[in-house]
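User:
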Amino acid sequence: MEPAEAEFLAEKELVTIVPNFSLDRIHLIGGDLGPFNPGLPVEVPVWLAINLKQRQKCRLIPPEWMDVEKLGEIRDQERKEDTFTQMPSPYYMELTKLLLNYASDNIPKADEIRTLVKDTWDTRVAKLRLSADSFVRQQEAHAKLDNLTLMEINTTGTFLTQALDHMYKLRTNLQPSESTHSQDF
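Assistant: Predicted structure:
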């Protein structure tokens, strides 16, 4: 899966906007949205929030977890724990990128948030690489990937599957095949 595909999936997540226009409920394949009334918050998918924001039709309210204090706690906990901690959103990296790219003027302390999310991402990817290295060295047969996001799995998935494929080939080449056994009669 490409990063763009993970981002596409993230765009279906709901965020709150405050529209500056009036519109009755709209009916879409993914469900009904609205009604839209000026000054009244409404939840919409990220793709619609970005579209409306670009057309200056709304103000975006950042998700609850997109706060400097909360993200600082998440980063610190991630650094302390040996295992992966649960993230506030399965698409935290993608949502941060999208919302800060298109609505940074609606997000207080946007630069600090960007830095905290990047620090958390770097910590998690480093942890993932160490886990993958340990997995390969110990020649494990399976792994438990709790609390990883799709994008994180995506970053090491290709490397890990190729490494496991090479390990398998090496193991099968080292084991004598059935046809090379001598037959004693």
